[in-house]
Amino acid sequence: SRIAALSSVTSAVIGGDMSARVPDAWGGELGQLARAFNEMVHSLQLTTVSTDYMTNIIESMNDALTVIGADGRCERLGYSSEELVGRSFREILADPSVLARIAGSNPDSPPLSRHETEYVARDGHAIAVSLSSAVMRDRAGAIQGWVCVAQDVTERRRAEQALIRAKEASETAA
């Protein structure tokens, strides 16, 4: 039946098959419904990015991506989701005052850009990072949270320290 066909295609779309379409040769109200349904699926196909695609992008990043909810809790970081989802961002920052700079009282203040701080790793050691953030708003302009990108700068800091020691050694020898 036509209703069974519509139900079957609906299930396929719910399952992620954006190529599924209802036969639109039907007449009457069911034909109008079929054409509207197909237009809706086509529109979804053009505007929807798969979760797998986005997850692949995020997991391919060399930098850590953190989403902080409006309540200050982590939603994603380079650790397993189970370990961090729901934890306060303060628990990850070696200097918790950085959270106030990110999610301060004035959401219209400039975003944090390349601020050097440290993350606390799961095993407790500090990871030197360059942190940038931006406020995340919904379509109505309400704050949904903040997105932070942290680049590990540990090796750069080690190289800077080595240069300073080499300079001091050459000055001492001179």
Give an overview of the whole structure.
The chain has 174 residues and is of the alpha+beta class. The chain has helices spanning 2-14, 28-47, 51-60, 81-84, 97-102, 154-173; strands at residues 64-69, 74-76, 115-120, 126-137, 143-152. Strands 2-1-5-4-3 form a 5-stranded antiparallel sheet, with helices on one face. A hairpin with a 5-residue loop joins strand 3 and strand 4 (126-137). The longest helix is centred in the first third of the chain and has 20 residues, at 28-47.
Bin the helical content. 40-55%
Largest sheet: 5 strands, antiparallel
Q: Record the strand order, biggest sheet.
A: 2-1-5-4-3
Q: If you compute it from the alpha carbons, what radius of gyration comes out, rounded to the nearest whole angstrom?
A: 25 Å
Number of strands: 5
Structural class: alpha+beta
Q: Give the oligomeric state of the chains in this entry, treating copies of one chain as homo and distinct chains as hetero.
A: single chain
Q: From N to C, what is the helix and strand string?
A: HHHEEHHEEEH
> Low-confidence segments, ≥5 residues, pLDDT <50?
none
Distance linking N and C termini = 94 Å
Number of helices: 6
Structural shape: elongated
Please report which band the strand proportion falls in: under 5%, 5-15%, 15-25%, 25-35%, 35-45% or over 45%. 15-25%
Mean pLDDT: 80
Keywords:
174 residues, alpha+beta, five-stranded antiparallel beta sheet, 6 helices, 5 strands, elongated
